Amino acid sequence: MIIFLKNLFLKNWSLKLLSFLLAIILWLTLFPEEKTFSERTLSVPLELHNIPSQVELVQKPPATVDVKIRAPKRLISQIGPANMRAILDLQKADVQQAEYPLKKSMISLPQGAEVKDIYPRQVFLKLERTKEVMMKVEPKFIGELPEGYKLVKAEIIPPEVLIKGPESQIKSSYKVATTPVDISSLTEPTELEADLILPNPEFLRFASSDTKVTLRLLIQKEEPLESQAKSQKKVTPKKK
Fold it and tell me: Cα 9 to the chain's mean position, in Å?
């Protein structure tokens, strides 16, 4: 038995070594790098597509999801968030639905790679119906008119603008403000433009692209008697 094993390993050892090396070369030829696979987990941006019209996204899902992929070693190092996408199609979404499952088919990958798992398996988001309201515009003035002048009237054109957003985010107390208008140097009737500032801008938006209003300010000089009465109010009577 010992002689048999000795002959098995030592007899014609050079030919056997050559055969072994040829077998390794053949194996490497038949199983190149693209036929050996590896796995890795990547954080992939979650994109929301086809949100229905007249519906608002109130509570957003996570910005990314973790995706475990399998791909040839040659390819896997080249795969990253830049060439991967997780797409959640909301075309058939409803305001009553809050949970949305994530499927492997939602992941866009380079050819040759496959999705092994996704975490989380589902995401939560909240949709609400879109509401449109006419909201009053309120001018915001800074500074004071020069002494002896008064603001008789401030006309806003248009006095209201159409605002849209989620139902729960529109309050009856809301008003649209103008950007601050400095009146400290005005001494005559003036017409100027001002930009508009939304309340709750995270959720509300203008229904049109026109986000300016015209302000017509009627400024007049105070009458002498009125100025005198105003001055008298400022004088504190002396105590006897």
Answer: 70
- With both helix axes pointing from N to C terminus, report the angle between 13-30 and 2-10 in degrees, rounded to the nearest 10: 60
Helix (H, G, I), strand (E, B) or coil at 16: helix
Q: Which segments of 104-188 are extended strands (E)?
A: 107-108, 114-119, 122-124, 126-138, 141-142, 149-157, 160-166, 176-178, 181-182
- Contact indicator for 37, 72 with CB cutoff of 8 Å: yes
The CATH number of the domain holding residue 54 is 2.170.120.30
Contact in structure between 132 and 164 (CB atoms under 8 Å)? yes
Q: Backbone phi, then psi, for 29, in 5-degree steps?
A: -75, -40
104, 144: one domain: no
Q: Please measure the distance between the N-terminal and C-terminal CA atoms of the chain and give it in whole angstroms.
A: 137
Is there a single domain that holds both residue 120 and residue 150?
no
pLDDT digits (tens, 9 = 90+) for 66-110: 999 998 888 888 888 888 889 999 999 989 999 999 999 999 888
Boundaries of domain holding 137: 129-224
Structure tokens at 99: 């949970």
In whole angstroms, how far apart are CA 178 and each of 171, 182, 211?
A: 18, 12, 10
CA-to-CA separations, 131 to 17, 54, 93, 158, 203, in angstroms, rounded: 81, 8, 18, 20, 11
In-domain check, residue 204: yes
The pTM of this model reads 0.67
Query: Both 219 and 146 in a single domain?
Result: yes
Residue 116 lies in a domain: yes
Q: What is the total count of domains within the chain?
A: 2
Q: For residue range 123-166, what is the model confidence (pLDDT) as tens digits?
A: 999 999 999 999 999 999 999 999 999 999 999 999 999 999 99
